Amino acid sequence: MLIPHDTRYALDAVIDLVNTAPDNDQAEGLADVTALKEFVRRHGISDVGELTPRDLKALHGVRARFAEVFAAAGSAVAAELLNELVASAGTTPQLTDHDGYDWHVHYFAPGASVADHVAADGGMALAFIVVAGELERLRRCEAPDCGRAFVDLSRNRSRRYCDSRTCGNRLHVAAYRARRKEAAG
Predict the structure, then answer these.
(1) Burial of 3 by CB count in 10 Å (0-12 exposed, 13-18 middle, 19+ buried)?
(2) What percent of the residues of the chain are helix, what percent strand, and what percent coil, each to the nearest 5?
(3) Buried b vs exposed e over 38-74: b needs ≥16 C-beta within 10 Å?
């Protein structure tokens, strides 16, 4: 699946955002404005102005809506969720060629809040996945103690873990040890 650089960056931001949600063993990854500023810096999100607790709360709302897309029962449900999300961000598609990148589309309005910026660009990136008929590429890690979101960009759609070096390797080692223990009697 060929994904342009801007769509890939938006997908990476969506995945990172979804994975900041607290769960059974992970604390809130976007707990304060300082963490929000780091998220914005890490993903090169520009032109969002001074970040405030209000921005943080709005981005938490966007995160919950993206999580719903990952849990969507089918393309029709995912499309409805994405249409609502992108429309609520007040999208204003614009061609741009900044920072040494060739022409690409920004979907957020100039001066948009960080939540609208991420909702518009991330929502459109996920929409391209749905349009391509590849919704099954939006996955959650199959490791029993993980569940992190990821986009399976493998050629044969066979990726099962968010990170093969951590979750995948840990489960393979555990299975190997269990087989050895069983063989030893």
Answers:
(1) middle
(2) 55, 5, 40
(3) ebbeebebeebeebeeebbebbbebbebbbebbebee
Reported pTM: 0.85
Question: Which residues lie below 8 Å from residue 168, measured CB to CB, with a gap of 6+?
Answer: 143, 160, 161
Q: Which amino acid is at 21?
A: A
pLDDT band at 24 (very low <50, low <70, confident <90, very high): low
Which is nearest to 109 in space by CA: 79, 126, 87?
A: 87
How many Å apart are CA 121 and CA 80, to the nearest integer?
Answer: 16
- What are the phi and psi torsion angles at 76 (to 5°)? -65, -40
As given in the structure block, the two tokens for residue 26 are: 């992970």
